[in-house]
Amino acid sequence: MKKSKETFSVAYHTLGCKLNFAETSAIAKQLNEHGFRNAKKGEQADLCIVNTCSVTDTADHKCRQAISHLHRIHPNALIIVTGCYAQLKPEELANLEGVELVLGIKEKFDIEQYVGMVQDHQNKKQNHAEIHHTQTKNIRNFAPSCSYDERTRHFLKIQDGCDYYCTYCTIPFARGRSRSASIEETLNSARKAAAEGAKEIVLTGVNLGDFGKGTSENLYQLIRRLDENEIVERYRISSIEPNLLTDEIILFVAESKHFAPHFHIPLQSGCNSVLELMHRRYKRELFAEKVHMIKKWMPNAFIGVDVIVGTRGERPEFFNESTEFIQKLDISQLHVFSYSERAGTKALEIPYRVTPNEKKERSEILHKISDKKLLDFYKANIGKTATVLWEAAKKGKNMYGFTENYIRITAPYDERKINSIEKIKIGNFSSESQLSMTVDSI
């Protein structure tokens, strides 16, 4: 007997970036509005939706593992796979056991029309998954989304796609050309997040600084409007290219009422020769200027930096040059990634290859530098006044939250404080294994 749509339970699994999590939340909301319900913990789901990442070979492997795991614990469920991996390699996913539907990037936002296949699934098994896929060059739509699983921090997607085509990256092939919402649409999305309880909104995108490309709008205009409208108490700007992080944006954040002094800027390499091989659109001197300007106007600002080790062409002397440059930067933390060769990228035309052992060694060197910089940043903030947004998560007898400049604060659990912003004085390091600070006084 066929079930009615309203009885179908859906389990979700998301891999990759915060953008993916925001999009999964949008998919879940769409399905809930059409009568589907989220599967309860331990329940056999009727439908499993996997939103994939494909930034590295490791990401691909984790996606396949996740699908296999879901098929084991939900053996009778229809498995739908979407996301970047599904866009780049749909046939590869269609051949995995348990997968019956593969949706590309464009199709993921029309998912409700495809899950009508669920009822047919009750009576029919296919040897090969059905694929619905649009060529990346033909993807023009922008689908706004916002994660809402957590009551505190919401990740609002304001931009998608990328026109940069860095030699190591497949994201433009998976996500398509740069596109975004309008300022008015973004303001409305922020208002909806606030209505759902958001106290902090993180602006996210594939190439965030490209917001408004092709229109008369831009990111600077957007953040000014968000700040003026006072929709939520706090905003953060997620990863933004250094060449798109304009001086006016930096100065505006420094004087803003609602934008946090928190920057995430991809460097990728501190060697100009490697940056040129990567086809990055800046030199390290520009990056250093941006860091200097941020620290001049916001001495306590948190600056996170992405770095890739072991790219094609990164000779030992280039890595050493990059390391020396990074050590001198007044930044707070590194996010270190090991280069992964991706089919179809221009980097494969570069002859010099770094061995896996060298990549591992280089990664360890940069992780040590990052650990020291983060420790020093935390030490420098002891005794300073800050505001903390308390999270819902509970660890033992403690709760935690983050300051405007992204310092993790731990305090005794108090349910009444969840999703509230509180002024505190930062204490010393907590006894937890994960780096965090205590509250000295309030």
The coarse overall form would be globular
Largest sheet entry: 6 strands, parallel
Radius of gyration: 23 Å
CATH architectural designation of the largest domain: Alpha-Beta Horseshoe
Strand content: 15-25%
* Superfamily (CATH H level) name of the largest domain: tm_1862 like domain
Overall pLDDT, averaged? 91
The rounded distance between the terminal residues' Cα atoms is 61 Å
Residue runs with pLDDT of under 50 for 5 or more positions: none
Number of domains: 3
Q: Give the number of helices.
A: 14
Q: Please count the beta strands (DSSP E, at least 2 residues each).
A: 20
Strand order of the largest sheet: 2-1-3-4-5-6
CATH class of the largest domain: Alpha Beta
Helix content: 25-40%
Explain what you see.
The chain has a six-stranded parallel sheet, with helices on both faces. A five-stranded mixed barrel has the order 16-17-18-20-19. The chain has a four-stranded mixed sheet with strand order 7-8-11-12, sandwiched between helices. 34% of the residues lie in helices and 24% in strands. With 442 residues, it is α/β, with parallel strands linked by helices. It is globular, with a radius of gyration of 23 Å. The mean pLDDT is 91. It folds into three domains: 130 residues, Rossmann fold (3-Layer(aba) Sandwich), CATH 3.40.50.280; 218 residues, pyruvate-formate lyase- activating enzyme; 57 residues. A hairpin with a 2-residue loop joins strand 16 and strand 17. Helix 10 runs parallel beside helix 12.
